[in-house]
Sequence to fold (105 residues):
Amino acid sequence: MSDESQYWIDLTNRQSNHLFDLHNSEMSAQLERQDYNLFEFLKPSLMIDGDQYEVLYGTNPMEGVAGYGKTPHLAILDFNKSWHQACPRVKSWVPPKIGSTKEAP
Fold:
């Protein structure tokens, strides 16, 4: 193989690798933007709660949706995950009938 042929092969490989890297960078940027879309749309609160960040949509975590993380980004990711989860079933407490000797669970 001639030196010129090898030059063109190497150049093509470098360009292909560069395009591949650009594509990966653009895909990473798009995925990161998607992480923030829900946050930007709903505009939940972002605050510090103890040693972590909390993202909260609603008045409190029990009545709203919350996410937690060591960084704001991780809290937003956890919030997004929580937003898409089904509401956990809460076993409601029924008070005992008057005169019953059973205690509440």
Summary: Helices lie at 3-42, 72-83.
